[in-house]
Amino acid sequence: MIPALFASLLFLTAAMAQESAAPVVDVVLLDQMGNSLPVQAVKKVIKTDEEWRTQLGNGEVYQVARGKGTERPFCGAFHDTKQTGVYSCVCCDLPLFRSDAKFDSGTGWPSFFQPVAKENVVTEIDRSHGVTREEILCARCDAHLGHVFSDGPPPSGLRYCVNSVSLKFGPQATE
């Protein structure tokens, strides 16, 4: 009896340690009206390649968001959208960009001068295609969003150039 109880206790302790060791990230979520809530810690979304393929399919969404691809310019669903709302990650629904930060960069991809919150987007150096660029990723699930450049408008001077297929759009709620 004691060895079985001890084994059960060890199993539960290991499971709790594994659960508490799950990576977390600080992000800003939005309320139903699109207002920013305080920064909060949430679990990172970590899935196997097979799980991502099941969720996203094997098409362009998967190739861009998980495979770091790029959609063709002027073909994405959001490159010329003017509707008021929030653009979220196609993989994990983290709010990434607001429509009031969107501008027409003339590049053929949705462009924003700032994210919903600096915590929601992370960057990494991308040296693919013989060019050094700054890749932008979703902070919660590491989905490839696009790249950020220093040729944007005020107030930030940045241009977050994002693939439409990496985003979901939610129109702004009204009271």
What would you note in describing this structure?
With 175 residues, the protein is of the alpha+beta class. It has one domain (46-171): Metal Binding Protein, Guanine Nucleotide Exchange Factor, Chain A (Beta Complex), CATH 2.170.150.20. Helices cover 19% and strands 27% of the residues. It contains three helices and eleven strands. The protein has helices at 2-20, 49-56, 60-65; strands spanning 24-27, 40-43, 85-89, 95-98, 102-103, 111-112, 121-126, 133-138, 144-149, 159-162, 167-171. The protein has a six-stranded antiparallel beta sheet with strand order 5-6-10-9-8-7, with no helix packed on it. Strands 4-3-11 form a three-stranded antiparallel beta sheet, with no helix packed on it. A two-stranded antiparallel sheet has the order 1-2. The chain is globular and about 40 Å long.
CATH class: Mainly Beta
CATH architecture: Beta Complex
Intertermini distance = 60 Å
Radius of gyration, in Å, reads 19 Å
The overall pLDDT, averaged over residues, is: 89
Q: Largest sheet, if any?
A: 6 strands, antiparallel
Number of strands: 11
Under CATH, the topology is which?
A: Metal Binding Protein, Guanine Nucleotide Exchange Factor, Chain A
Domains, number: 1
Strand order within the widest beta sheet? 5-6-10-9-8-7
Number of helices: 3
Low-confidence stretches: 2-18
Set out the fold topology.
Blueprint: H1 2-20, E1 24-27, E2 40-43, H2 49-56, H3 60-65, E3 85-89, E4 95-98, E5 102-103, E6 111-112, E7 121-126, E8 133-138, E9 144-149, E10 159-162, E11 167-171
